[in-house]
Write a structure and sequence with these properties.
The two termini are 18 Å apart. By secondary structure, this protein is mostly helical. It is globular, with a radius of gyration of 14 Å. It has four helices and two strands; from the N terminus they run ααααββ.
Length: 98
């Protein structure tokens, strides 16, 4: 999936989620979620510094990413200071990322 970020990895993601440990520490969940994002996993709550690499491109285009950016106040920060190279404003209230 990391070598083919635009590919369809739905079956692999389904298998990974089926076998993911049910009880993990917060750190374990963060690591597992981050590893599954290139497969199309979008139900994560924390991004850290990882979402800017090529394997996270599809995730940057999801509602989950948009929600995290808005709720964390990142969009307001971007508007006040500058958007990252992968993202740009759309109108007065929205944004898009590659």
């Amino acid at each position: 999936a990391h070598l083919d970020p635009g590919g369809d990895h739905a079956d692999l993601l389904a298998d990974a989620l089926r076998y993911r440990p049910r009880y993990q520490t917060d750190v374990g969940l963060l690591i597992t979620d981050a590893l599954l994002v290139p497969l199309g996993h979008t139900e994560i709550g924390y991004l850290g510094s990882q979402p800017w690499g090529p394997s996270f491109q599809r995730f940057r285009q999801t509602e989950a990413f948009e929600r995290i950016i808005r709720e964390a106040g990142v969009l307001a920060y971007w508007r006040a200071h500058r958007f990252p190279p992968q993202c740009r404003p759309v109108g007065a209230e929205d944004f898009t990322c590659d």
